Amino acid sequence: MGISHFSGLFVLLCVGVGGALLTLAGEHGFYRLILPHIRRQQNLKYWLHTSQKIHRALNMTYEDVKRQRAEREKRLVGLKREDYGFNPA
Q1: In terms of domain of life, where is this protein from (predicted)?
Q2: 0.90 exceeded by the pTM?
Q3: How many domains is the chain partitioned into structurally?
């Protein structure tokens, strides 16, 4: 194997390290400059709420699902009674 083979590998290594450093600089700039600006805006605060709903949906147990379904049915029964003018109090 000649020097041209190893010089090509060295160039590829330098390109890879340079790309990694550019990616690192881009991520650092995003988290330091852009993300705080997005979080401060009033109309873009829904992203955290959406991610929490996804997390909850993926990590619910069967008991949580049953409890949530019972609460939803209780609310629906209460709404139907109010629609028909039924007031127990």
Answers
A1: Eukaryota
A2: no
A3: 1
